[in-house]
Write a structure and sequence with these properties.
The chain is mainly α and 161 residues long. Helix content is 37%, strand content 5%.
């Protein structure tokens, strides 16, 4: 009588295979966290770039007389909301029912952890007359930064970006 060859895996082979798969999964988890952090950092860079370009556009329009500027003011917007809601155009450029709007929406800081905060509330603002090494809010918005206390993959604080 012929014996048929054994088919299938032994218990040891299955355990070794399971251990290898588990080890690979443990190695992949930190990599996915780095990829997610890198994506959030790219989103933060983009958000900062968009807001800063909008602030510069508002200032340029103010300096060019497209929008009215009060005497003694910097020409920067009084708040981030103004970039979205808009301001009336200067009478020097003729009547226009359309306000001067710079952004459709304020991007959200991707590292803001409180979902109850509005997009505008996720950013620190810096006034024109505050020092660069000690930024503080004021009567206008000259620059923005992240409120996150965390540090990036390169070791720099997100608030310093």
């Amino acid at each position: 009588m012929k014996q048929s060859g054994q088919r299938g895996f032994t218990l040891i082979e299955l355990l070794v295979s399971l251990a290898i798969v588990g080890l690979l999964a443990m190695m992949a988890l930190p990599l996915t966290q780095v990829v997610q952090t890198r994506a959030k950092e790219a989103e933060l860079r983009q958000g900062l770039r968009v807001i800063r370009q909008a602030l510069d556009s508002y200032k340029a329009a103010s300096d060019a007389g497209v929008i009215d500027k009060s005497v003694g003011t910097s020409g920067y917007p009084p708040s981030l909301e103004v970039l979205v809601t808009g301001v009336p155009r200067s009478a020097a450029f003729g009547f226009s029912a359309q306000p001067f709007v710079v952004l459709r929406r304020i991007p959200r800081d991707p590292f803001a952890e409180d979902p109850a905060l509005s997009d505008v509330q996720t950013w620190n603002t810096r006034a024109y007359n505050s020092r660069a090494d000690a930024p503080r809010p004021g009567s206008d918005v000259f620059d923005v930064s992240s409120k996150s206390p965390r540090h990036g993959l390169d070791g720099s604080a997100y608030s310093a970006w």
